Amino acid sequence: MSSESDFVAPEPAYPEALEALRTRRSGHNFDPTADIDDETLRTLVEDATFAPSSYNLQPWEFVAVQDDERLDQLVELAYGQEHIAEAGTAVLVAGHTTPKTADRVFEEWVEAGRMDEETAEQTKEQTLGMYADERAGRDYAVRNASLAAQNFLLSAHARGLTATPMIGFDAEGVADFLELPDEVVPVVLIAVGPSGGPEPERLPRRDVDEVLHREQF
Ligand SMILES: Cc1cc2nc3c(=O)[nH]c(=O)nc-3n(C[C@H](O)[C@H](O)[C@H](O)COP(=O)(O)O)c2cc1C
Q1: Cα(114)–Cα(106) distance, rounded to whole angstroms?
Q2: 90 within ligand 1 shell (Cβ under 6 A)
Q3: Which residues, 6 or more positions from 155, have their beta carbon under 8 angstroms from its beta carbon?
Q4: How far apart are CA 51 and CA 45, in angstroms?
């Protein structure tokens, strides 16, 4: 439906960003002879941390594995997905099931003049209450960390690297292997590294008319 106030999006302000999100692939063809260096890893993680998060709580952690023997162990925990070892770097994006950054972050809202102290305290208590049960805590971890993971994937692609997100792994086994604390859960494992060549054709996407629902499902 249209009306006189409909806003037509102008030419894209960031056309290359749109190109990056439309050309990103989950690549499986890695150059097994080259790994990303530490500065690149740090940059990818920094880009990931620009993702939005509930109240800016940033409830995510990134655990990088680059040691060859440990990568082979991760391949086993990921049911034989060899591309993890070929990529040379695996990064587990993990999420907090409890808002454990709340004290610090709500202080930052107050310091920035974006909330008064009373509102910050009330919002913090509300937030802690909201994520008190196990299901809500997991949802909180997965929603926030998934957005960071997508940023990581887009950053890798924009920087000419290949990256694949994975949930095909033994989550409990990986949590043990990486010594995650109890309140931090694995969300997405990302294999990232220099490309080894072309990828197969992209599979089709569901049409907008099929996935866009208006006013109700
Ligand atoms: C939640 C999730 C789990 C995935 N798990 C795996 C996986 O375990 N192994 C794998 O090779 N690819 C995995 N993928 C990649 C998908 O197969 C891929 O995103 C999909 O086929 C679409 O291709 P594209 O990302 O190249 O557009 C996963 C992707 C997502 C979002």
Answers
A1: 10
A2: no
A3: 43, 44, 47, 48
A4: 10
Give nearest CA residue, ligand 1 atom 22. 26
d(CA 109, CA 117): 9
Residue 114 belongs to some domain of the structure:
no
- Please tell me if the CB atom of residue 80 comes closer than 6 angstroms to any atom of ligand 1: no
Is 14 inside a domain boundary? no
Domain count, the chain: 1
Residue 147 · residue 43 · CB < 8 Å: no
Residue 130, in any domain of the structure: no
pLDDT tens track for 16-26: 999 999 999 99
pLDDT higher than 60, residue 1:
no
Ligand 1 neighbourhood includes 132 CB (under 6 angstroms)? no
Pocket test for ligand 1, best of 166, 192, 202 (most atoms within 8 A of CB): 166
Residue 118 lies in a domain: no
CATH number at residue 52: 3.40.109.10
Three-class secondary structure of residue 92 per DSSP: strand
- Radius of gyration over every alpha carbon of the chain, rounded to an integer in angstroms: 20
Closest CA to 193 of 77, 67, 84, 92: 84
Note down the domain range covering 82.
Answer: 26-98+136-196
What is the pLDDT at residue 2? 53
Global pTM value: 0.96
